[in-house]
Amino acid sequence: MATDAHDPYLWLEDVTGDTALDWVRARNARTVAEYAESTEFTDLRERIRAVLDTDARIPYVRRRGAYLYNFWRDAEHVRGLWRRTTMDSYRTDSPDWELLVDMDAVARDEDENWVWSSAQVLRTEDDADQTRALISLSRGGADAVVVREFDLTRGEFVAPEDGGFYLPEAKSDIGWVDVDTVYVGTDTGPGSLTDSGYPRTAARWERGTDLSDATPVFEGEHTDVAASVWYDRTPGFERSFADRAVDFYTSVRYEITRDGGLTLIDAPGDARVSAHREWLLIRTRSPWTVGDTTHPAGALLAARYDDFLSGSRDLTVLFAPDAHTSLEQYVWTRNHLLLVTLSDVQTRLRVLTPGPGGWVESAIDGVSELTSTDVIDVDAVASDEFFLNSSGYLTPSTLLHGYVGEPVEALKQAPSFFDASALSVSQHFATSDDGTSVPYFVVRRDGHTGRSAGSAPAAPGPTLLYGYGGFENSMLPAYSGGLGRGWLERGGTYVVANIRGGGEYGPQWHTQALKAGRHRAFEDFAAVAGDLVARGITTAAQLGAQGGSNGGLLMGVMLTRYPELFGAIVCQVPLLDMRRYHLLLAGASWMAEYGDPDDPEQWEFISKYSPYQNVDPDRAYPPVLMTTSTRDDRVHPGHARKMAALLEEQGHEVHYYENIEGGHGGAADNAQLAFKSALAYEFLWRTLS
Question: What are the residues facing 99 on neighbouring strands?
Fold first, then answer.
C-alpha cells in the first residue's frame, strides 16, 4: 500500500506541527549560518532585490475595457498595489495610476498575512463604467484563497452583510455571469470537493442569497480533478459551459442550455477545446481520426461551433506540426487568431483570419526573430488589439503593442540589469539513451561557444544546468536580471535543457515521458549533462543542476540515479516521495502525469526512480540544497523535509531551508524571493568554484 507504515519520517508531513516546525527551524538556522550571513551574500541578495523592486521594470498590464490594470510590488509596497490607468497615460514615462487596492494597508488593517492572488473585473456593456471585481487573496501565498467582492467606484471591499460576494478560504472556482450573479464551486462541506481537493460541484449564486441556497448547475465525480462552470459574456454569443476534468489531461465538456440541460461538445477528451464567437477550436494531444483523415497530435483545427454541435465534422487545419515545429500558443483577438509557433525552440508569430474564402495567413511585422515572443494580452471582445512580450537570455524585455494589420510599436523597454557585452548564447543538441536529439541553450562568456574548428578550447567553468520536463511546459529563452547578477556576472555558465516531458516539440514531446516513459526525461537531462562535459564547457565537479516542483523531482532523480554527473544540486519545492505523492494535497490530480502508486504495475515503474525510496547510504552524492515552503498547499513540504532527513541520517551532505510562507512559488514577496535566489546562487558558487 502507498501509505507506508514503515516510513520513519512520516511525522514530518504534519505541516504545522510543533515537532516538525522545530526540526525545520533548526535546519533553517544551520543553513542561514553557513550561507546567508556573509557580506557577500548580503550584497548579492540586495542586488537581486534591487532588480525585483526597481521602478524601471515594465509594469505589465491587462486590458479590461477602457482601463489597463496592473499589480505592482516594489521596496515601498512589499505586498503590492492593484491599480489601473488609461492607454493614453500608459504610453507616457510616468503613467497616472489610479490606486485600487493597497495590499500592505489591507494586511496591516486586518492583521492578516495577505498575498495577492488574482482579480476578475466584470466587463459591462459600457466598458468605461466598470464597477465590480472579484479579488482572491491568499494567506502566506497558498493556493487556497479568500474571495471578496470589490467596488471599483468606491474603492473598497463590499461586505457580505451589504450584499457582497464572499468565499472563505478554499481552492475555489468563481466567475461573473452578471453584476448580481456568479457561477461558483467551492468547499461547502462533505462531498463538495474531489479527491484532489478542488471543486466537485458548481452552482449559480445570486446576490443577496446564502451560498447554501445557490442553484446547483453541474457536478463531477469524486475521482475527477475538478468540475467547473463558466459564462461567455461575448455580446451575441452569450453561453454557459461546464467541464469535468476527469484527469489532468482529459475533460468532458458541455454547453449548458437555457433550460439547464447539457449538450456534449463531442471532441476528443484529451484535446484542448475552446469557443470564440461562431468558432470552435480543437488542439489535439493525440492522433484523431475523422472520416478518412487522421489529424496528428499537436494539430489545431477549426469548426463552426453550431455546425459541430449539430454533428458536422467539417474541420479546417489551422496548424499541423512537423519534426521541428510545434504550436506553443494561440489567442483570439475579436476577429483574428494569433499563433505562436516553435521551431527548434525558437518562436515565430502568425495571424490567421477567417473570411468568406477561408482562413488567410499573414505576418506580424516588427517582431525580432532573435528573441522569444509570447502574447500576454488581447482584447478578444471589442477590438483586434494585442500586447506582446519579447526577450532573450541576454535581451531585456520589450513590451510590444499593436492592432492586427497595423504596425507594431515598442511600448515599454526594460533596462539591462547586468553587463552582457562579453556573453553569448548558443544552441546545442545532446543525444539521449534512445537516440533522441535533445536541444539545450548555453549562455556564457564569448569564446566559449561557437568556436571554429581548430581553435583552442576554452577552460571549463562553473555551470548551472536548469530543467523541468513535465506537464507540457516549454522552457523558452527569457531575460532574468536576477540570474545575470547572481550567476552570469560571476563568470558562471547557464544552461537550459529542453527535455522530454515539456512541450517544446508539441504534445508528443510530452507524452513520451508520461507514466512508464518518465525515465526518458531523466535520461535526456543526464545526456545534456554529459554533453556539456564532452564539449569542454564544464566538468562534472563544476556542474550544478537546479529545478523546482516537477523539476524538483528531476533533481531528486539526478541526485539518486546520476550523482556522478554533478558537483551540486539545488532541489526546490519538490516531489520526492512518489509512493505517497497522490495522498498529499493536490497530488491526486497528477496521476495522469506520473501514474498511480497504488496500482502494483504502475508502482513497478515509479518505484525505480522515486527519489525517497532510492536513497543509498553507500553511494556518494554531491552536496544538495533543498528548499520548500510551509505554506505550499500544492506540493506538500513533507517531500523535501523527509528527503532531507533521510539524506542527513545516512551521512550525505544536505542543506535545508523552508520558507514559513510563500506558497508553491516559495516566496510571498520580493524580499523572500531575493533571499531564496541568493541562497541558491551562493550555495552553487561556493560548491562549484
Answer: 83
For 504-515, give the DSSP string: TT-HHHHHTTSG
Report the 10 Å Cβ neighbour count for 76. 9
Q: Report whether pLDDT(668) > 80.
A: no
Residues with catalytic roles:
549, 664
- Contact predicate 482/677, CB 8 Å: yes
pLDDT band at 662 (very low <50, low <70, confident <90, very high): low
> What's the gap between Cα 527 and its chain centre?
25
In this predicted structure, the answer to whether residue 580 has a pLDDT above a threshold of 60 is: yes
- Residue from 291, 290, 275, 284 nearest 250 by CA: 284
pLDDT reported for residue 341: 96
Angle, CA of 483, 484 and 488, to the nearest 5°: 100
CA angle 328, 332, 336 (to 5 degrees): 110
Residue among 109, 90, 108, 106 at smallest CA distance from 98: 90
Tell me the sheet residues that pair with 138. Answer: 115, 145
Query: In Å, how far are 132, 148, 149, 576, 652 from 120, measured between CA atoms?
Result: 9, 11, 9, 35, 48
Neighbour tally for 354: CB within 10 Å: 18
309-316: long-range contacts at Cβ-Cβ below 8 A with a sequence spacing of 24 or more? 309/255, 309/263, 309/265, 315/282, 315/290, 316/358, 316/359
pTM: 0.92
Q: Tell me the pLDDT tens digit for each residue of 492-526.
A: 999 999 999 999 999 999 999 999 999 999 999 99
Give the integer Cα–Cα distance in Å for 193 and 191.
Answer: 6
